[in-house]
Amino acid sequence: MQRGLMWFRHDLRIHDNPALANLASSCDQLTCVFVIDPNWYRADHFQSKHLGAPREAFLWQSLTELHRALDAMGQKLIIRTGKPLEVVANLCMDHAFDLIGVTDHPGTRERHQVDMLVERFPQRVVVSDAHTLFTQHQLPFDLPDIPATFTQFRKAVEKRELMPRLPLPVPESLPAPITAIKSDPAPLSDRRIAPYQGGEIAGRAQLNHYLWDTHRIQRYKETRNGLDGWDFSSRLSAWLANGSLSVRWVAAELDRYERNVEKNESTYWLYFELLWREYFQWMLYHYGARFFAFKGIANKRPLTTFYAEAFMAWREGTTPFPIVNAAMRQLKQTGWLSNRSRQLVASCLIHELGVDWRYGAAYFEQQLIDFDVAANYGNWQYLAGVGADPRGSRRFNLDKQAAQYDPDGTFVKTWVGEHESSELK
Ligand SMILES: Cc1cc2nc3c(=O)[nH]c(=O)nc-3n(C[C@H](O)[C@H](O)[C@H](O)COP(=O)(O)OP(=O)(O)OC[C@H]3O[C@@H](n4cnc5c(N)ncnc54)[C@H](O)[C@@H]3O)c2cc1C
């Protein structure tokens, strides 16, 4: 009688989940667990928490959906609260699991968890890889030789015509649950964060919407610098970040779309952006803690410090820059920002207000519905001039950007209000 424990972390799905598929085929009994860490709620992290309200709600919906999907297969999702490693280790000791399934993730905490688990339960941990497009084995370089710039990375991958591994189907069946293991009462809020809806079904529906239903994908390259609205970019990031959508599934659907409907510069550009995501994941695997260091992976000291007032003005959207204020208020209210707005507000914090980039990155971590540790810290370092950027640092001319991307001021009026925006000028 083999007993398996599936520890869900950033892979909240039953499709393309090799760890789950592995346990499904090798165990007679299975427990599926997700652990809520009370540390996510402590504001000890550059004055921000790890988990803010928008992502908490999205996470709760994703877990509810995962539970429903498991339930339809005779399983259930056990939710526990506590230090994740301790919770999982205690479950293993109490219930003598033979196999523990987990999906690898480049986050330093996540990797430490797996390392500790392997140390405590040797031979029992099955670590699968499904958070990235490619496996480490497929990469055309050894990790320590990861290219210093995105362009070199992209060219290396494209030259070899690397194909993401095809996504796995949902397992045909799952082993029976261990009925004695129960959930703790979950402390998460179920606040609605429209128009987002967490979970695997909604994630796939969004992919279908962007590709097959509206064909917006065909104009992605022209529209992707939009500031507001739903359809100017794919909006897949939140589902990709918590793994309710597999990036390999997205790549496979994109490929199918290109074969069956249209292949153009825009369809390529979505893949190009997925490669940016990919690059930052592997950079984080390689650099570990240096991804979070003030001097970054470039080991260069930025000319910034910490000014409490400037940081507060930025957070609250009361800086002298209306476009930044509009974006920061949108972020506070909705948990989301377009890529262009993220670049502008980050440039403002670093280059206009002179604040240490890590405060901005930590606030994004708290606030973003799609927070992904590699994409977030990779992009912040890049803009602060301490990351993977041959040009040093990126300073945007905020007036010029506002004139180009918000020519009639609609974005500012929407989020700051007409009266207040003229007062701030
Ligand atoms: C300062 C800063 C912080 C950011 N923090 C995050 C974050 O925490 N989580 C996150 O997913 N993205 C982050 N991004 C990248 C990007 O802004 C978002 O992925 C994108 O805006 C999400 O919207 P979308 O899904 O419609 O993207 P689309 O434009 O449709 O792109 C498709 C997918 O490609 C990936 N992607 C796109 N642009 C980037 C990029 N520059 N870097 C890495 N991946 C990319 C995302 O997975 C995205 O869902 C950040 C960018 C900046 C400048």
UniProtKB/TrEMBL annotation:
One Pfam match: FAD_binding_7
Cofactor note: Binds 1 5,10-methenyltetrahydrofolate (MTHF) per subunit. Binds 1 FAD per subunit.
GO biological process, one term: photoreactive repair
Presence of keyword Flavoprotein: yes
Gene3D superfamilies named in the record: 1.25.40.80, DNA Cyclobutane Dipyrimidine Photolyase, subunit A, domain 3, HUPs
Ranges for domain Photolyase/cryptochrome alpha/beta: 2-136
PROSITE patterns found in the cross-reference section: PHR_CRY_ALPHA_BETA, PROKAR_LIPOPROTEIN
Annotated FAD binding sites: Y220, S233, S234, R235, L236, S237, D370, F371, D372
InterPro entries (alphabetical): Cry_DASH (IPR014133), Crypto/Photolyase_FAD-like_sf (IPR036134), Crypto/Photolyase_N_sf (IPR036155), Cryptochr/Photolyase_FAD-bd (IPR005101), Cryptochrome/DNA_photolyase_1 (IPR002081), DNA_photolyase_N (IPR006050), Rossmann-like_a/b/a_fold (IPR014729)
Keywords of the record: Chromophore, FAD, Flavoprotein
Cofactor(s) annotated in UniProt: (6R)-5,10-methylene-5,6,7,8-tetrahydrofolate; FAD
Molecular function via GO: DNA binding; DNA photolyase activity; FAD binding
Its job: May have a photoreceptor function.
NCBIfam families, A to Z: crypto_DASH
Similarity comment: Belongs to the DNA photolyase class-1 family.
PANTHER family assigned to the protein according to its UniProt record, in alphabetical order: CRYPTOCHROME, CRYPTOCHROME DASH
Protein name: Cryptochrome DASH
Species whose genome carries this gene: Salinivibrio kushneri
